[in-house]
Amino acid sequence: MKTRADLRNELTEIYRAAIAAVDPALLVARAMDGALDNSRDAAAAIAAGKRVLLLAIGKASFAMATEIGRRLDDRIVDGIAVVPQAPTLPPNPRAIRLIPGGHPLPDQSSLNAGDAALQMVAKAKDGDLVLVALSGGASAMLAAPAHGLALQDKVATTLAMLRCGATIRELNCVRKHLSAIKGGRLVASLSEGVRVVALILSDVPGDDLATIGSGPTAPDSSTFADAIAVLKRRNVWGRAPERVREHLERGVAGEIPETPSAGDPIFKRVLNVVIGGNQTALDAAAAEALRRGYAVERWRELKGEADDLGRTLAAHLAKISASNVCVLAGGEPTVTVRGNGKGGRAQQCALAMAIELERLDPSPRLAALVAGTDGIDGPTDAAGAFVFSDSAVRIRDSGLTPDTALMRNDAYHAFDASGDLLRVGPTGTNVTDLLIGLVNF
Q1: What is the pLDDT of residues 261-320, one digit of tens each?
Q2: Residues of the chain with pLDDT under 70
Q3: 132 part of a folded domain
Q4: Is residue 173 part of a domain?
Q5: 130 and 33 within one domain
Q6: d(Cα 33, Cα 126) in Å, to the nearest integer?
Q7: Are 281 and 373 contacting, i.e. CB atoms less than 8 angstroms apart?
Q8: Does 251 reside within a domain?
Q9: Smallest Cα–Cα separation from 176: which of 113, 251, 253, 266?
């Protein structure tokens, strides 16, 4: 039987293989070469663009902008890369400006980025190409509040929704209806003769264009009424700022135009191409697991409350009777915050799994890793956490109580004490979370 160190190493290497497959520069290069089945038209449009304005937004924006800048060079007449934090060197000193953007909550830097982006694309002339490189995190990193709203209105609303466990689709439905740039409004701000190509690294299960980065270049089927329904369903409506409630109600009354939908002619000059996503990472993880001698089982999407999901995953692993099985899944759990601890959705899910595994099957045959592909789980320095048969025991031996830590949303300190955190640093990509489970005898 493999040791804990062996299993930890295998889990880490399978995770690293998944991350390598969603390297933003690699995927951008393949798209621009037309090497992806869905990218040929976009590659042709980019190749034909004599004057290009580049807008890169999200956690993968630096790598995406660097590759685009390298390939297009002086054809980029202006460019902005909105990045989580400014690297030392810009991707293209001559044309591409680096602007930081806040995450997971928008901040003043996000507002500055939104202003700069709108000012830049306003300069696009007929025949120009606006090339958008979009990745996860863009919704918070690029902020342009709708007329009459302030940054603090969006921050308060976003924070309330994050704490109540809203899904990414619910969160972005509301964001789009409080924005002057999301929900296709970026395209609506351009003059008629400007073409748009968006290369999109998806952080949304199902790769819904309207949800990734709140869809600045995509048609939006949601409405102001939908946004209000989300806030009421999540019990946030009464806590939302008065200006937010008033704005959404004015939208329902028809006093503010809806976000442009699929039938709007503005989208005839737009090409949106998903260049990679969670499935890309899972396929690479599966290939690595097979190479290591595991039979691969694809589990369903990771969704729902992290506590419930962790317990369900533990039960599933405990039921597997075969040996050398690797269970893979991807998605985005949610966490309803009830405590004041430290952690993220991956760590919360892993802790619930560890507690349940101790109850169901404390044998050393099971191990798992739940981790974010961006290398950052919540406001922590960890990507996620490993789960072993004795994780709960070692947390308890450290003086902490696993159940109490779970209740307090304090998974980070529990796994830090047991030595089960995965720390890899920011990966420069983002395609939601991964579950890698191993069954051995």
Answers
A1: 999 999 999 999 999 999 999 999 999 999 999 999 999 999 999 999 999 999 999 999
A2: 86-94
A3: yes
A4: no
A5: yes
A6: 25
A7: yes
A8: no
A9: 251
